[in-house]
Write a structure and sequence with these properties.
This protein is of the alpha/beta class and 285 residues long. It has helices at residues 3-12, 16-28, 35-42, 46-58, 77-89, 101-109, 112-118, 133-144, 165-173, 236-258, 267-276, 280-284, and strands at residues 33-34, 62-67, 70-75, 121-126, 149-154, 199-202, 220-223. It folds into 2 domains: 3-117, Winged helix-like DNA-binding domain superfamily/Winged helix DNA-binding domain (Arc Repressor Mutant, subunit A, Orthogonal Bundle), CATH 1.10.10; 120-284, 3-Layer(aba) Sandwich (Rossmann fold). A hairpin with a 2-residue loop joins strand 2 (62-67) and strand 3. The relative contact order is 0.12. One of its GO terms (molecular function) is DNA-binding transcription factor activity. Pfam families: HTH_20, LMWPc. Keywords: Arsenical resistance. This is Protein-tyrosine-phosphatase.
Length: 285
């Protein structure tokens, strides 16, 4: 980052309301916050907030994406890290260890991987009966990225008999913990006490014509349609082969998903990358 560029960004931050605004957005993480909610939390008029949002946007520190009628603002983490790295480069003649705690703090801030490891993202997988695809996705994500992602699953019409036995058998055989897996309604994740979802991914073409609940204006949604194992026909071996293919397709998508630089992408770019994973050919490129 050039000196003039850094000076412009620091100048944009040189005001109390803007610093409070940036802290609110940092607290929200990559998912961002609707402008109306920011105004409420800061207790400032919409016109005043708009002025300060524009200043931070022009400095490249935040960006907005439209979701329905709302504008969602999120921190541009890559830009903010570059600004802090600009300071770190000059720390004690390029030897941050000489700066003690300050040098170590700046060195840590400039490492993107550390930031990404510190973040935990909630992901909800949906399918109609929550008995196969979404159950497999929940188990897979729990195993692939524990600590970085918290996986959940639900359905619009959950199976009263629970997950398909052949799905649980496959997951057990592949070393997954199935003790906590159950079929449940998506209503469990819409109340005030429910965990806030960062991502909601539908794994079927349509949820039997039903409209998904509102999981919040900042939730990133996507659709990765996959065949329904409950509708597989043929011999036991043939159905097992098809089930393995669904599992493998989910695993490829999720391995690509957890590799996304979530902390450094704005909402629009992140939504586009999530949508790309619906294409099995994109996953293997």
């Amino acid at each position: 980052m050039e000196t003039e560029d850094a000076a412009f960004a620091f100048a944009a931050l040189g005001q109390g309301t803007r610093l409070d605004l940036l802290r609110v957005l940092l607290d929200a993480g990559p998912s961002g916050v609707a402008a109306g909610e920011v105004a409420t939390r800061l207790g400032v008029p919409a016109s005043t907030l708009s002025f300060h949002l524009r200043a931070l946007d022009q400095a490249g520190l935040i960006a907005a994406t439209r979701q329905g009628r709302s504008l969602i603002y999120a921190v541009q983490f890559a830009r903010l890290r570059a600004l802090l790295a600009f300071l770190a480069e000059a720390c004690c003649g390029g030897e941050p260890d000489r700066c003690g705690d300050l040098g170590r703090m700046l060195d840590t801030i400039t490492r993107e991987n550390n930031i990404m490891r510190a973040a935990t993202f909630n992901v909800l997988f949906l399918c109609t009966h929550n008995s196969a695809r979404s159950i497999m996705a929940e188990a897979l994500l729990q195993k692939l990225a524990p600590g970085r992602f918290a996986a959940y699953s639900a359905g619009s019409d959950p199976s009263p008999t629970g997950p398909l036995p052949e799905v649980l058998s496959l997951l057990k055989a592949l070393g997954h913990d199935v003790s906590g897996l159950r079929s449940k309604s998506w209503d469990e994740y819409t109340g005030p006490a429910a965990p806030k979802m960062d991502f909601v991914l539908a794994l079927c073409d349509t949820l039997q014509g039903q409209v998904c609940p509102d999981f919040g204006a900042t939730t990133i949604t996507g659709a990765w349609p996959l065949p329904d194992p409950a509708k597989f026909s043929g011999s036991v071996a043939e159905r097992a082969t098809l089930l393995n293919e669904v599992y493998a397709g989910l695993r490829r998508r999720l391995e690509a998903f957890i590799s996304l630089p979530i902390a450094s992408l704005d909402r629009m770019a992140l939504k586009a990358r999530v949508d790309e994973l619906a294409d099995p050919h994109a996953v293997t490129r």
